[in-house]
Amino acid sequence: MSKAQPIRITTAGRSRAEDIAIRQKRYAISMSIRSVCFIGAVVAGLAGIGWLWPILIAAALILPYVAVVMANATNTKSDEMNLMDSPYGRPQLTGGHQQQLDEKSDR
Q1: Which residues have CB under 8 Å from 33's CB, separation 6+?
Q2: What's the distance, CA 35 to chain centroid?
Q3: At what angle do helices 52-72 and 16-47 cross, to 10 degrees?
C-alpha cells in the first residue's frame, strides 16, 4: 500500500466548477464562430462570391467537432518538477527536553 503524496500548490489543478465554466465559455465561443461562418456563407452565396461560401460551409461543418474536443479537454497539471532538497540539510525541531538541555549548555 503506497502512501498518498501531498498536492503541491504548483501542481494543483483548477476547481471542478472553474474548469467547467472555462470549458463552457470555450464551447460557446466556438459555436458562435460557427454561426458566423454559416451566416457568412449564406451572405457570400447571395452576393455571388463563389469561392468564399464553400470555405465558410466547411468551417461551419468542422467547428462542432473542434468545439466538442476543446470542451472535453480538461486541464491537468503534471508533477514533472521535483523539488530539490536544500544543500544544508533539513532543519529539525527538537523536543522540549532536548531544547532545555541545549539552553543549559549555552549558559
Answers
A1: 63
A2: 27
A3: 170
